[in-house]
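User: Hi! I have a protein structure encoded as tokens and I'd like to know what sequence might fold into it. I'm fairly new to this, so please keep things simple.
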């Protein structure tokens, strides 16, 4: 398989951790799009404050285009949480869906039950960022949950250790080789 792999899903579901581990296991490159945005453009909250979320979504989409030009195959991409659910930029959803269809998309969610998933995600976010507003994050997760469940060539609903999730993904990737 030479296609790129795209991890998709809400914030704090493990896209970066599991993406990095999978890339190491299959000896591919790994790109965390959020990290690249912060290194190449600006800190995400600063950019959103200056240019709006819609402006951020456009800049982020252009960044992904450039990254894929440099890494057209054998790269694992950990996409931003809003990559397929831009409320203010629906035209980007179709663009991004077209892009990930050229590879293999892997949806990560902690549970098929949104009430279980939201508590896991909010707890992880509060552990990482003490200024996160739990109610705002719950609302965001729940509003995007059903949208995300529609996406993904491979769907992973798990709270297992990342190494076990990677083993599951590798088995499921065999159907795409």
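Assistant: Happy to help. Inverse folding works backwards from shape to sequence: for each of the 177 positions I chose a residue that suits the local structure. Here it is:
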């Amino acid at each position: 398989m030479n296609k790129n792999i795209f991890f998709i899903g809400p914030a704090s579901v493990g896209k970066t951790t599991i993406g990095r581990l999978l890339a190491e296991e299959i000896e591919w490159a790994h790109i965390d799009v959020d990290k690249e945005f912060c290194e190449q453009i600006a800190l995400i909250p600063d950019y959103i404050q200056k240019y709006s979320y819609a402006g951020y979504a456009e800049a982020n989409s252009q960044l992904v285009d450039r990254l894929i030009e440099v890494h057209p195959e054998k790269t694992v991409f950990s996409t931003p949480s809003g990559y397929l659910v831009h409320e203010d930029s629906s035209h980007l959803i179709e663009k991004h869906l077209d892009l990930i269809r050229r590879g293999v998309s892997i949806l990560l969610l902690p549970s098929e039950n949104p009430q279980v998933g939201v508590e896991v995600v909010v707890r992880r976010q509060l552990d990482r960022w003490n200024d996160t507003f739990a109610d705002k994050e719950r609302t965001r997760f729940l509003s995007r949950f059903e949208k995300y469940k529609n996406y993904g060539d491979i769907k992973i609903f798990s709270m297992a250790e990342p190494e076990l999730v990677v083993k599951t993904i590798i088995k499921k990737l065999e159907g795409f080789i």
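A useful reference point when you look it over: Strands lie at 5-8, 29-32, 75-78, 104-109, 154-157. Feel free to ask if any position seems puzzling.
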